[in-house]
Each structure stands twice: as structure tokens, then as C-alpha cells.
Specification:
disordered C terminus, alpha/beta, 12 helices, three-stranded mixed sheet, Trp Operon Repressor, Chain A
């Protein structure tokens, strides 16, 4: 898969091209990347890419023409690189909230190149969005300085799903793989600052460990992201969800406040706070400037 980012700051993408899993996958040829700067398609001495909004108001708006030419250049480059199709995505606050399901759908588009339009300033001329963009995506209800951060998040999420980037078992066991959050993880030492590891994880009994992890995942999801549980229910809960929800409600949380000690049994000594945060999570949409 190939990504082309339309960006005023190409160097920002070194975060995914020079570091971590995405860098290793890039070196292995799992994906390709190129950056296109809209300033390269301007005609004035100042290389202007923005102007004041019609109707007044604060901030500046990105010009349609440099962006359109940058996208056309990216499309041509992707076609020359062997991509059979191009899908243009703009990272905007008005976009559809990004989900794990959508990430997997995009990752499954074999032969398709993805062009990521990274907005800046107050926004992008709507005429460009209407004429040149296939999809608008948002990564959350918060503000950042530009679409580059959102684009890198999308690249990272998609690359992780591409064959060869990770072990298949690693991808299958991640949060959201089946609509639930992940279970708690532990490593050495067995006792850290008075906090132990749940006994079941030391038992060597794989079936018991699997049941414990499933119960913890359900408990954590119900507590932190009840909207995901409701989404699964509306979609027709898979066999085992309803059967294990009782276990989830009885499963002790191992994510208590820092001042509380978690016994080796995994039972928490206090109920975590953050009800407001859990409620706010149900409203998750995207804001990307």
C-alpha cells in the first residue's frame, strides 16, 4: 500500500517513516510513502497557500487550487507506482469518526493508494473538498494544529493491519479486534512496590487465563467504553458475549487508583473514579484542524 500526504510540513512524517513498527515495515516494502507540498504548485513569489475567508471571520483558509494540483500529482505518482486506484482522504473536524473497523477496511484495499490531505489554519476551501476528496475522517473531539498528526495516526493504524507488518497473533489480540478493549498486562517482577500479579496469570492454566482475560476485557469495556458494548449488542452480540457479561460484572478491576494496592489475586481495593470520562467517551467524534 502507498500513502501520499498533502502537507506543508513533510518532515513531520519522519515520525512514521524513521521510527518503530512503521519504519521497519517501510524498509521491508510493506508500504510506501511520499509527501507532496502544496506550495510547490503556487504561482506567486510568496508561494501562498491560504487567504482570508469570504464573509469574514478569524483565521485563514487553505486555497483550493494548490491542493487540487497536489492531489493530481499524488494520483499520477500512485498510478506510476502501480496503484490500481486512489482514495483521497481529508483529515477534518467534520469527518466521520475513525474506527477500528474503518481502519481494517482501508487496509484491505489491495492495490489502492491513499492520499491524505492535511489541513492547516482555519480550514480548507469547501469547493476543493467537494471536488477532490472521497472521504473526510476525524480522529476525535479535540483540536490540534494540523492534519499531519491525524494522518500519521491513520497511517500507523493501517500499516499495523497490513500483512507482514506484525505477527498475525499480535493483531488479532489487540484492543478493538473484536469490539472490546484489551485486558490488563503484567511482566516481571512478580511483585512491584507491593503490587502483585493476578494468581491466574501465574497458574500456567491456559484455559483459565483465557477466561480471566475475556472477563477483564468485558469489565474494562463496560466501565470505560459502554458505547462499545451497546454497539456489539445492537449488531447482534457474538456467542459468548452475553454468557460472559455476568463474569465481567463480577470480575475484579485491577486498575485501581495509584494509592491502592492490588492484591496478587487481582481484586482491587477501591472502585476507580472517572465516571465523567466514561460518559464523555460515548460522545467520541473528531476535531482536526
Amino acid at each position: 500500500m502507498r500513502f501520499d500526504a498533502i502537507t506543508l510540513f513533510p518532515e513531520m512524517f519522519e515520525a512514521v517513516t524513521r521510527h518503530g513498527i512503521t519504519r521497519r515495515a517501510l524498509v521491508q516494502g510493506v508500504w510506501q510513502f511520499a509527501a507532496v507540498n502544496p506550495r510547490d504548485f503556487t504561482t506567486d513569489n510568496h508561494r501562498t497557500v491560504d487567504d482570508r475567508p469570504f464573509g469574514g471571520g478569524p483565521g485563514m483558509v487553505m486555497l483550493a487550487e494548490p491542493l487540487a494540483q497536489a492531489v493530481a500529482s499524488a494520483r499520477a505518482a500512485q498510478s506510476a507506482a502501480g496503484c490500481t486506484a486512489t482514495h483521497v482522504v481529508a483529515l477534518t473536524p467534520n469527518g466521520t469518526p475513525l474506527t477500528d473497523q474503518r481502519v481494517r477496511e482501508l487496509a484491505g484495499r489491495a492495490g489502492t493508494g491513499i492520499v491524505l490531505v492535511c489541513g492547516r489554519y482555519e480550514g480548507i476551501d469547501q469547493r476543493f473538498l467537494d471536488a477532490c476528496v472521497d472521504e473526510e475522517i476525524s480522529i476525535g473531539d479535540f483540536l490540534v494544529s494540523g492534519g499531519e498528526v491525524a494522518a500519521m495516526a491513520l497511517i500507523d493504524a493501517i500499516v499495523r493491519q497490513l500483512p507482514g507488518a506484525l505477527k498475525e497473533s499480535s493483531v488479532a489480540d489487540e484492543s478493538f479486534a473484536d469490539g472490546l478493549l484489551d485486558a490488563p498486562h503484567y511482566t516481571r517482577p512478580e511483585m512491584w512496590r507491593g503490587r502483585g500479579v493476578p494468581d491466574v496469570l501465574l497458574s500456567g492454566h491456559h484455559a483459565d487465563i483465557a477466561r480471566w482475560r475475556r472477563a477483564q476485557r468485558l469489565a474494562r469495556t463496560e466501565r470505560v467504553r459502554p458505547d462499545l458494548i451497546e454497539r456489539l449488542r445492537l449488531a447482534g452480540a457474538p456467542q459468548g458475549l452475553q454468557q460472559t457479561r455476568g463474569d465481567a460484572r463480577g470480575a475484579a478491576s485491577v486498575e485501581g487508583a495509584a494509592s491502592h494496592v492490588v492484591p496478587s489475586s487481582g481484586a482491587a481495593t477501591a472502585t476507580p473514579t472517572g465516571v465523567n470520562a466514561a460518559a464523555a467517551a460515548q460522545n467520541g467524534r473528531t476535531t482536526m484542524v
